[in-house]
Amino acid sequence: MTDTDPVAPSLDDFARLARRAFDALPEPFRAAAGEVVIRVDDFPDDETLAAFGMEDPFELTGLYQGHPIGDRDAMGPAREPSRVFLYRRPILDEWCERGDVGLYEIIAHVLIHEIGHHLGLDDDDIDAIEGAD
């Protein structure tokens, strides 16, 4: 994939960009993220959209699914691994509509936002941190 390719980046291309964005995070942030699984899908599934009261699959660019680190019970039963979902088509749509930021930057932004949820931050906390840059 290059910036001049006329073909939309594939799921694998997105996964590579997400990995690059994750690897670029400061070490303490990466370490705190632990073993979170990063998954790239074209769209959220119908069940996910319904859970958020959404009908348009382009409304959701990413999702954290799991129990935030601070809410975990070390002695409790094993849980499913925490996951960050990046939704390729809505991210591509946002990238095309905006036209003022690179695809990598949007992927990194969505990834960081969802990892923030993994760390127990809410949207206001994440917005405040991003606004401090």
From TrEMBL:
Q: Which Gene3D superfamilies match?
A: 3.30.2010.20
User: InterPro entries attached here?
Assistant: Zincin_1, Zincin_1_sf
Output the SUPFAM superfamilies linked to this UniProt entry.
Metalloproteases ('zincins'), catalytic domain
A Pfam family in this protein?
A: Zincin_1
Protein name from the UniProt record: Neutral zinc metallopeptidase
